[in-house]
Design goal:
The chain is α+β, with helices and mostly antiparallel strands. It has nine helices and 24 strands. It has two domains: 154 residues, Adenine-n6-DNA-methyltransferase TaqI, Chain A, domain 2, CATH 3.90.220; 137 residues, DNA methylase specificity domains (Adenine-n6-DNA-methyltransferase TaqI, Chain A, domain 2), CATH 3.90.220.20.
Length: 397
């Protein structure tokens, strides 16, 4: 087993701070010779994204700030809580095939010598490292900043490169399986939507009955959960709000007593419809929880799950447009909008035939979600123990 030694991170790492591009030089659309610019908003949730990205012309003077597949980035500024959660010190991997440019307040981690970059990706994901960086940041809670010197000034025990690589391989194997499930579910969702469109839009039959969306399923609005506080520390569940529906639960979530009607209990695989603020329809992939107001739990005793799920998704763009029209209030839809959204109902025999195709797809998505959660829990349990040396990885002799 290799020996762990105490290092200041500047001895094993370097960090390139992003370039201070001038906003007047940004391009809204990509042109020949330009590259996307990765800002702090594009560094979130473990992967870099190109959502609402801007572009900048590239020349050789920017070579230092060019990104390639596999680079590890660190957030040197924390976003406002209402934006996509991005905590100062969070790290992300650049997994995109296209090259890009690094903007200011985002750092690129560089290893020295034979030290392993993937190990330090997980090192910075550790909660203890997060606490250190947060405690050394400046500014407000909503806009915290940390410097290159603060990051590289951290002192910690680090294993030799051989053990670094072994630790990274264990954690990477879990991440690879998690990524595979994500990709599978994305493909399955697209398959389900494509089949649905073929059946009910492109090849819809004239004799199919037309009914309101509200008539094919029960849209149960959630509770005002603040009125149902926990009675003790045992009989309670987290509250599912719009924020949690999008991002999952965190330590600051609200809690509710389990002494509520059972229909307000949410389990993995339930269909949840956010009808206010940020509209979405989602197969819930998290833990058991209590449904809060502004969310519908969608169920039906008459129709299969895939049917009311995909019809709800089909009308989502229309609902978002209705919500956006309520300019003077928080965007939302009303029960009447569910009444006005029409669906097509095939015959019983046709529904059975279609269900034989769609039900296994939705069931596989739910199964993948459950497997995904187990892998995430395993990774979150192992990560701090591996990067601290509490659990040792057996090395090949």
């Amino acid at each position: 087993m290799s020996e762990w030694k105490e290092y200041r991170l500047s001895e094993v790492l370097d960090l390139i701070s992003g370039f201070a591009f001038k906003s007047k030089n940004f391009l809204e659309y990509q042109k020949e010779g330009s590259l996307p610019v990765i800002k702090i908003k594009n560094v979130a949730n473990g992967d870099v994204n190109l959502e609402k990205v801007v572009y900048h012309q590239y020349d050789n003077s920017l070579e230092k700030y060019k990104l390639a597949f596999g680079d590890v980035l660190i957030a040197m500024t924390g976003n406002h809580p209402q934006a996509i959660t991005q905590v100062v010190g969070d790290v992300s991997k650049y997994k995109l095939k296209t090259e890009a440019l690094l903007n200011q307040r985002v750092g690129k981690i560089i290893t020295k010598g034979e030290n392993d970059l993937n190990f330090f990706y997980y090192f910075f994901k550790d909660e203890e490292t997060h606490r250190y960086l947060a405690n050394n940041s400046s500014g407000s809670a909503n806009q915290a900043n940390i410097s290159k010197n603060d990051i590289l000034g951290l002192i910690s025990e680090i294993p030799e490169p051989t053990e670094q690589r072994a630790i990274a391989e264990v954690l990477s194997s879990l991440d690879d399986k998690i990524d595979l499930l994500h990709r599978q579910n994305k493909t399955l969702e697209q398959m389900a939507k494509t089949l649905f469109r073929q059946w009910f839009v492109e090849e819809a039959k004239e004799d199919w009955e037309e009914r309101p969306l509200s008539s094919i399923a029960n849209f149960l609005n959630g509770l005002a959960c603040q009125k149902y506080p926990p009675k003790n520390d045992v009989d309670k569940l987290p509250v599912l709000k719009i924020k949690q529906l999008r991002n999952g639960f965190s330590e600051d979530c609200d809690w509710c007593t389990t002494d509520v009607k059972p229909e307000y209990l949410i389990k993995n695989g339930d269909i949840i419809f956010s009808w206010s603020a940020s509209l979405m329809v989602k197969i819930w992939d998290g833990e058991a929880c209590i449904l809060n107001q502004h969310l519908f739990k969608v169920t039906s005793d008459e129709f299969p799950q895939w049917y009311y799920y995909l019809w709800s998704k089909h009308h989502l763009d229309e609902f978002i447009s209705i919500s956006a029209s309520h300019a003077t209030t928080m965007g939302h839809i009303k029960r009447g909008d569910l009444d006005n959204a029409m669906v097509l109902v095939p015959s019983d025999d046709e529904m059975i035939e279609l269900s034989e195709i769609q039900t296994p797809i939705i069931d596989k998505i739910i199964s993948n979600n459950k497997h995904f959660k187990k892998l995430v829990l395993m990774r979150e349990t192992l990560l701090p123990k591996l990067v601290s040396g509490e659990i040792k990885v057996l090395l090949d002799e």
